[in-house]
Amino acid sequence: MLSATELLKKIKPLHKNGEYRLLIIDDTVEPKRGKFIEGTCKYIWSNKEHRSINALNIVSLNYADSHSTFQLDFSIKMNDSKRKSPSDFTAKLHHRSNAYQRKSEIIKGKNILALEMLERALDNGIDADYLLVDSWYTKPNFIKEANTLGMPVIARLPNNKLIWNFKGKYKTLNAIYDSFKNIRHKYSGKHGKISYKYFDSVLEHAVLGKVKLVFLHTGKDLLVFISTDISISGKEILETYKKRWNIEQGYKDLRLLFGLGKEENRIYEALIGKITLSMFTYNIVSYINRIKHEPQTLGELFRDLECELETLAISMQLFIQILTKISEIQNVVKDNKDLLQIIAVISAFTQKELGFMCES
Predict the structure, then answer these.
(1) CA 103, CA 342: separation in Å to the nearest integer?
(2) pLDDT value, residue 358
């Protein structure tokens, strides 16, 4: 969180007026085969595999604007099918330590973890215009708490009449949609190959007060979006919510380029450390990408940096070869007894820091 906050301060002057700064909350499921990995559960639903799997459930908070995405915070969430109880974890920790606090939060609900991360971000001075969440987190009390923290929410609503009821004659989402027969095709849009019709309306909710709803119909499915900021248009709500995809792309990049999900350790604190390093590295690359003023995908930038490291390794190897040739001159070695030791140190350092040595 602290390193991400400092990086965001450095790119703040690059932010353009009129571009929304967004906080995005979501969670990802990372499969784990081991039966003794601390923090994992036997049964976590995977949207990718469409079944429950043995996995690690990571709830995370991201920052996104028009050009950059940064990983701000994360927590691991366990359910009742946990492999090991937190009390049985390997490390015995002092109750005032950060590691102990990390272990204590693992049994909290996802909504509570999300709100705690949001509060930490705001307390650390993170500036944002809206909080984006998907339908799983979209419950009246969650949205109310986020508003209380000073963060307007844009989200997709679950079409669940037990959770979402509004004041007035028509209370459920389907009933409200049916009541607007005259304007339900007021606006049209297209997302990829999908065409849709939509309209927006300000309604009153018992817990949230006045909110703006956008009803979008693809011809097959009805999707409903909510904004606690009623001043923005339905089109802006839809365009802003589309940026929630940034967090999904972030998870993909973390897995592909930065080792998320490839942690090889059973100990909970080691998992936390490895995930933290993956996200920290992601943020550094994202920052480099932004200050270059040439926004590109992190995959492209990662490959560019890899080429630069390879060039550096080749240069270091050539330098070592030159020193080695010099050391073969007897008079030089006689006058510089430490030269061979210096060459060995440089060689070892290059091997360690660059990860490989080039023979040509």
Answers:
(1) 46
(2) 42
Is 134 in the same domain as 33? yes
The three-state secondary structure class of 247 is helix
Q: Is residue 360 included in any domain, yes or no?
A: no
Mean predicted lDDT score pLDDT of the chain = 83
Per the structure, the complete domain to which residue 30 belongs is given by 2-295
pLDDT for 57 equals: 92
Say if residue 262 is in the same domain as residue 323. Answer: no
CB neighbours of residue 74 within 10 Å: 22
The domain spanning residue 261 has which CATH number? 3.90.350.10
Residue 128 or 356, more confident:
128
Quick one: DSSP state of residue 184? T
Nearest Cα to 104, choosing from 265, 272, 260?
Answer: 272
Nearest Cα neighbor of 248 from 115, 41, 60 is: 60
Q: What is the DSSP letter of 254?
A: H
The closest alpha carbon to 118, from 136, 106, 131, 108, belongs to 131
DSSP H or E stretch at residue 7: helix 2-11
What is the total count of domains within the chain? Answer: 2
Least reliable range by pLDDT among 156-165, 185-194, 260-269, 312-321: 312-321
Q: Are 173 and 107 in contact (CB under 8 A)?
A: no
The reported pLDDT for the residue numbered 58 is: 93
Shared domain check, 118 and 214: yes
Residue (of 165, 144, 162) closest to 213 by Cα position: 165
Dist. CA 44–CA 42, nearest whole Å: 7
The pLDDT tens digits for 35-65 are 889 889 999 988 888 899 999 999 999 999 8
**Residues 283, 310 within the same domain:** no
